[in-house]
Each structure stands twice: as structure tokens, then as C-alpha cells.
Amino acid sequence: MKERHRKRIEKIKKRYEQKRKLYCLLKKHASDILQSENFKSTRNYIQHGTIPVHSHCIDVARKSVALNNFFHMHCNERELIRGALLHDYFLYDWHDKNRENYQFFHGFYHPGIALKNASKEYPLTPREKDIIKKHMWPLTVSPPRCREAWIVTTADKYCSTLETLRLRKRAGKVRVRLS
Known about the structure:
The protein has 179 residues and is an all-alpha fold. The protein has helices spanning 2-35, 37-41, 53-70, 77-86, 106-121, 126-134, 147-164, and strands at 46-48, 51-52. It contains 7 helices and 2 strands; from the N terminus they run ααββααααα. Helix 1 packs across helix 4 and helix 4 crosses helix 7. The chain is globular and about 60 Å long.
């Protein structure tokens, strides 16, 4: 009994430490994004299932960092995180039936819209642009050109699958505090 309890405590500590490290990285590399009113507004739009776009983007950033570390890809961490946070920066409810091209074309067009919106607010590097524009490959036709974009594309597919199939625990409960 004591051994099982100890293992459970260790697992909780490990999970807490991973989250703490992620939040430190988010604060270090993307506090401007997380504090922007437009990014905060993504809490009002649902992405997959019941998950807000805001939570989805933070999850993709978390999974991207984890994949980068696991595979020792030596990606630029700042560009990886910023691209992951902005990859779905389309700023509208794609479920709204009154929108032109409602739902059907969203998967094809939203990367370009997200890039346009992000470019208006933030100075983007070529890698960050590649991440945002090509994260929906193969729907975007041309594949990602850098490691960071491949990792975010993979992380996005993984997170989207969990969200769509409603396998993600505590959906919509992610909060990032910068102070």
C-alpha cells in the first residue's frame, strides 16, 4: 500500500513539475501573446468537441515542447511555442452557420487567416509563418519546411484527435497565469 501511494505521489509531482516548466516557457517566450485581448478572446470559440481554441493552442504548445524534447529535435523553442500558440489564430467561430463557407472550407482556409491575423499583431519569423501556414498539411498542399512546423503539425493532429474523440481529460480547464 505504501509503495503504491509513494508512486502516485511521485507521478503527481512529476506532472506538476512538467506543467510548471511549460508555464515558465510560455511566460518567457510568449507572454505578449498570452496577454493580448485577441488571444484571450479565443476562449470564446470552440475548436474540437467542447475545447476552446485557447486551450487547444496551449495544449499544442505543450505537446510540441514534449515532442521536441523526446525526439531531441533541437528546435528553436521560442519559435516552436509562438507558432503553436498562433497556429489557430483565426478569431471567429467556425461553427457559426451564418458565416460564409461555414465549416466545410474551414480546414483549408483557416491557416491563411490565422497567419494574416498573427502578422498584424506580432513580428513573425519565417519559421513561425511556416508553422502557422502549414499546420494543416496535407490540406495545405505544400508541406512544412522546418522541424518546428513538422512538430506543431504532429502535435496539432494528436491534440485534435483526442479532443474530437473526447478523450482529453478536464476539457476546457486549462488556465495560464502570468503574474
